[in-house]
Write a structure and sequence with these properties.
The protein is 64% helix and 0% strand. With 107 residues, the chain is mainly alpha-helical. The radius of gyration is 26 Å and the shape is rod-shaped.
């Protein structure tokens, strides 16, 4: 199979944005309300074990979401490469047909 290597900057088209948590939190995740302006909900504001559990679940959610998006992006790239290889094959066959046609005209 044909593998195309590209720089990381070109890996993500302009319309694709990956899910990620904002980095505006201060302190440990789930330890209470941060400086970002929003508290993140009553459980996270309370802090303690439930706040840390909720923060861990949220991190897990975004991690899984990002993995799904990357997998979908990878599959799309594979399908595009396969499509273009098929197009190349069909164009090469068309070129051969046209060359044969021209050879037959010259005879």
């Amino acid at each position: 199979m044909f593998v195309v290597r590209r720089s990381a900057a070109r890996l993500y088209p302009a319309g694709v944005q990956l899910a990620k948590m904002s980095g505006s939190q201060v302190g440990d995740l789930g330890s209470g309300a941060g400086k970002g302006g929003g508290g993140g909900g009553s459980i996270r504001e309370a802090g303690g074990a439930f706040g840390k559990l909720e923060a861990a679940r949220e991190e897990e959610y975004f991690y899984k979401k990002q993995r799904e998006q990357l997998e979908r992006l990878k599959n799309d790239q594979i399908h595009q490469a396969e499509f273009h290889h098929q197009q190349i094959k069909e164009h090469e066959e068309a070129i051969q047909r046209h060359k044969q046609f021209l050879d037959n005209l010259n005879k």
